[in-house]
Amino acid sequence: MEQQNYQYHNYEVLGEDKTLSKRFFGNVFMWMFVALAVSAAAAYFFASTPSFMSYLVAEKGFTVLGYVTIFAPIGLVLLMGARMQKLSYTSLIGIFLLYSLLTGVMLSFILLIYTAFSIAICFVAACAIFGVMAFMGYTTNVDLSKFGPILMAGVIGLIVVSVINMFLGSPTLDYILGFVGVAIFTALTAYKVQEIKRIGQGLDEDGNSIGDEDSKKLAIMGALSLYITFINLFLSLLRLFGDRR
């Protein structure tokens, strides 16, 4: 009888551990959707409120607050990456939501540049591409980790050339960057989702060696990674297909 109880207990614990990866994966996407909702609300609010927009843009260009809004999200991402272990879960959520808010404020300029119809079409297209690639990344048996360094190098190159083109102002180069961006962030979606899946599987294996708060922190960082990938995929599509006002 004791042997049977012991075996039953082991199966029960194993069943509980197996739900860790699913719960972790669900939390990642939940926080990603929360971030997108916060960004969308902030973008719409600022774009439809000229008095608030005036704090960001003046007649001569961006104000000091405008530049802070543009560059602060970069600092917040670096802070989350460097201090994740020392930050509390609540603090990490606060920084993540602040990042989403500031990104939404920055994206409000897009609502003023592109038509609402083209924004909606590109957003739906980004959702479709992201969903398909996320499914592929989750279900494929192909190891995508070997493509990680190549994709990250592509992201860095894309950023550098985009900054250079800010001074050159070349429409042709901007169009090419749109194609490159779509290709990179489409592939990066599958890679990131597979990486997050493996983290969740690691929680199943080491469920007793990692704290619940640590797994929640990892979910926030996973959501941040997917959120950034999705936003950049959306912006790349706008570069290609967005109709300006």
Mean pLDDT: 84
| Global shape | globular
Number of domains: 1
The percent range for helix content is: over 70%
Strand order of the largest sheet: 1-2
Radius of gyration: 21 Å
Q: In this structure, how is the largest beta sheet organized?
A: 2 strands, antiparallel
By secondary-structure content and strand pairing, the structural class works out as: mainly alpha
- State the low-pLDDT regions, or none: 1-17
DSSP strand count: 2
Structural account:
With 245 residues, this protein is mainly α. The protein has one domain. 84% of the residues lie in helices and 2% in strands. It is built from eight helices and two strands. The chain has helices at 2-47, 50-53, 64-83, 89-113, 116-139, 148-168, 171-205, 212-241; strands spanning 57-58, 61-62. Strands 1-2 form a two-stranded antiparallel sheet. β1 and β2 (61-62) form a beta hairpin. The chain is globular and about 55 Å long. The termini are far apart. 27% of the residues are buried. Mean pLDDT is 84; it is low at 1-17.
Task: Write a compact overview of the structure shown.
This protein is an all-alpha fold and 245 residues long. The protein has helices spanning 2-47, 50-53, 64-83, 89-113, 116-139, 148-168, 171-205, 212-241, and strands at 57-58, 61-62.
